């Protein structure tokens, strides 16, 4: 595995984890709830894709700017890939669930 591929996968991992961290802080600070009850509330109110989109945008934008400041462009490619995976999840959720 080349250095470029390793950096891509580091960015992909970061892009998948950063929204989850933001979602955790969102549930704790805004919803003032644990994760499981918060997810149940969001499912009942049909707000899952909106909150996932918010988490992805905020979490991945933060990671993007950190990597951009360091000129780590292969990691930014991974973040974009993770964002596309989240987008596919949201489309699947809206159509089939």
Outline the secondary-structure elements.
Blueprint: H1 3-29, H2 35-44, H3 48-69, H4 73-96
Descriptive report:
By secondary structure, this protein is mainly α. It has one domain. The protein is built from four helices and no strands. The chain has helices at residues 3-29, 35-44, 48-69, 73-96. It is elongated and about 45 Å long. The mean pLDDT is 95.
Reported for the largest beta sheet, the result is: none
Number of strands: 0
Poorly predicted runs are none
What's the Cα radius of gyration? 15 Å
Number of domains: 1
Quaternary state of this entry equals single chain
Q: Span between N and C termini?
A: 38 Å
Average pLDDT confidence is 95
What is the chain-wise order of helices and strands?
Answer: HHHH
Percent helix: over 70%
Any idea what the shape is?
elongated
Estimated share of beta-strand residues: under 5%
Q: Helix- and strand-based class?
A: mainly alpha
Count of individual helical segments: 4
